[in-house]
Amino acid sequence: MASSIHGRGMGLVLGLALGLFGAAGGAAAQGEYRGTPAQQRACRPDVFRLCAGEIPNVRAITACLAARIGRLSPECRAVFEAARGQ
Questions:
Q1: What secondary structure, in 3-state letters, does the chain show?
Q2: pLDDT tens digits, one per residue of 69-79
């Protein structure tokens, strides 16, 4: 659930979404954590498969992915679980 992702983990997930769509200029200027390129690659297919209608709304993409955690690819699910500290 999106509400359970917090702190640096939420920044990671938001950063992933930002990085996926090239909209990170504002976030990067604010020092927001974007995640690693590998983490971004892990979730990119799931964003397009499950949450394309939310692009470019980063918060909506993050909430969409979190709400569908059971349908995420194993790679992207691992990113969300790591962000939640599991």
A1: CHHHCCHHHHHHHHHHHHHHHCCCHHHHHCCCCCCCHHHHHHHHHHHHHHCHHHCCCHHHHHHHHHHCHHHCCHHHHHHHHHHHCC
A2: 999 999 999 99
